[in-house]
Design brief:
single chain, about 350 residues, alpha+beta, 16 helices, 16 strands, globular, DNA-binding, AlkZ-like, Winged helix DNA-binding domain-containing protein, DNA binding
């Protein structure tokens, strides 16, 4: 069966809670999404606000302080918010990837024994929290000839750590405190988690998708043999002939189901979850949105990316990729006002930039 771009886009939006705002709790939504991108402190809050019918900043803050959700490096060794239950199996599943990334620092600390570095990092963190700079400086005392930054980043890769509140709280910037994940959560990490479990969770949140998509999202490699040996998965094809996998009982959305406008934050899950992002945006749009390691905030129109936005100093700047009908601009204005209210902007305004293209939607 061949799935066209509209079916793929709307199915993904449905699973991402972006067709209709969901009645799920914040914790349930975080688990539904597997892990919420958290490289920007405020982004997870806006991402959840766009997806949930009832969500406040204090909802997520309470989960972080209550240790039901944690912030730490996970998929692609980037910052995510994830439920405590999921952290316990996802983080050890990714350890080999973390260790490979850590190896890039070894040339800057040639005299450092990695096993001793891991052990000493745990000892320094035992029973307390430290910022990366504090941990780095302590390790540098043991290896003064090594690059201090390499020691700090290596410790974070070798030892499962989480960032404790107030890190991760809306509007809070500053030093990033570390705590040993198992101490913070009071539970042990799983010893041998299954990669198939991660594939199932990914497809539930983002499918149908290709093996390359799964690898792009997770940072893992060599998943093809794993996926091909999961006999219950359904197979589809996209219009380019790529094989897409999905869960056996996961519904597909109709291509004509309404897709309302939505504002997505920096690094949103939806934008970074695929190797082939054509279900959401054109190649030229991708170049504008995904610049190096940065993923800019976007808004959705009729199920695909319609442009980019930013909110600074009480002004919501909206830049469409193409001219928008008056009705769509009215929808964006209403949704933009709600976004500014959520962000605490009392007297905001909207600035419309000219479209990048002259082609009307």
């Amino acid at each position: 069966m061949i799935l066209n771009q509209r079916v793929l886009a709307r199915t993904t939006l449905d699973r991402q809670l972006l067709l209709t705002r969901s009645s799920l709790s914040a914790l349930e939504a975080v688990e539904r999404l597997v892990a919420v991108q958290g490289q920007d402190i405020d982004a997870p809050y806006i991402g959840l606000w766009s997806r949930l019918a009832s969500f406040t900043q204090s909802d997520l803050a309470a989960l972080l302080y209550g240790k039901q959700v944690v912030r730490g490096s996970l998929l692609r060794v980037t910052q995510h918010l994830v439920s405590a239950d999921d952290y316990l199996w996802i983080r050890p599943l990714l350890q080999a990837m973390f260790s490979r990334r850590q190896g890039a620092w070894n040339r800057m600390m040639r005299d450092v024994d990695v096993e001793e570095l891991t052990k000493l990092s745990r000892e320094h963190l035992a029973g307390r929290t430290l910022t990366r700079s504090q941990l780095r400086d302590l390790l540098h005392e043991r290896w003064p000839s090594a690059d201090a930054a390499a020691l700090g980043w290596s410790a974070q890769a070798l030892v499962p750590v989480v960032h404790t509140p107030p890190n991760g709280i809306w509007g809070r910037r500053g030093a990033t405190p570390f705590a040993l994940a198992e101490e913070w959560l009071g539970r042990s990490l799983e010893a041998a988690p299954s990669v198939e479990r991660l594939v199932v969770r990914y497809l539930a949140a983002f499918g149908p998708a290709s093996v390359m998509d799964m690898q792009m999202w997770s940072g893992l490699t060599r998943l093809r043999s794993v996926v091909e040996e999961m006999p219950l998965l359904r197979k589809f094809h996209d219009i380019e002939g790529r094989v897409l996998y999905d869960l056996p009982d996961a519904p597909l959305a109709a291509e004509d189901v309404p897709a309302p406008v939505r504002f997505l934050p920096w690094f949103d899950n939806l934008v970074v979850a695929f190797h082939d992002r054509s279900r959401l945006m054109t190649a030229d749009q991708r170049k504008a949105i995904c610049v190096g390691a940065v993923i800019y905030p976007t808004f959705l129109v009729d199920g695909t990316v319609g442009g980019m936005w930013d909110l600074k100093n009480g002004v919501l700047t909206v830049e469409p990729f193409r001219p928008l009908p008056d009705g769509v601009m009215e929808e964006l204005a209403v949704e933009g006002a709600r976004l500014m209210a959520f962000a605490g902007v009392e007297e905001g305004s909207i600035a419309w930039l000219p479209p990048r293209s002259s082609t009307t939607i």
